[in-house]
Task: structure prediction
Amino acid sequence: MLIRSVLPAITTFLLASTAYAAADVRVTIPQPAAVHVNDPSAIDVVVANIGNKRADGVVLTIQLPTTNTTPIHVMGVVSGLDSRCSRSGATVTCALSSIARNSSTTVSFDMALPQADKTLAINASATSTSAENSLSNNSAVSIPPLLNYAIPVAEGDSAVVELCTGTALTSFYECTLFPSSLQSFDVDFVANQELSFPIDPGYGGTWSQIPPGSLQTDPEYLSMTIMSMGEIVAEFEGWGSSDLPECFDGMTTFPGSTYVSPYHVCL
Result:
């Protein structure tokens, strides 16, 4: 009877000891401070070994947000990359060597994210050549919080609109990667929330700084409805993306068409 009761206890102890005596790599991305769109955000990726053995051959891989139409292009500007890391397209690879038990290391870089009509997430994951207790905590994701600029628009203001047109576009930043695709036109914000187009009086429309579902003006927001011969031909919604110059970035759709056009509207 004594042998029968002792054996399960020994087995449990050995299994627990085996699981405990191993590395355990954990990846976290602390929430970065909110910054305005197009301003650098300080990103830290923390790789810790919370196990009881050294983690060898640790490699951290970071996937940066990409443009929607050409995924090899990063959606934004990366700077200050940790010297242990190299970047190829939207993939950052960091050779971190060994991490002692109950120790951690931090990989840091800056990233300026643009206004976009998609979620801009940073994904990070780590591997080790050492056996690990768990692989469930080897990955993390962060969506850096972004702020928009407040830009009040008044009757009598004028703006220059830069744009490109295509399918599945999500940000004016995508247009800037191909400068030859850029076009521009002028627009005037006239009385009664109306639009005027100096180069083509056949076009008109309306503008507003009241977001859908709200009853109050929000100077971070701008919408424009462009009309021709009484018909809506384009609808723009954008958010303050720059204070010098004062600009809104957003997307324009065309009724009955799959084409979209990112607009960069600068007063």
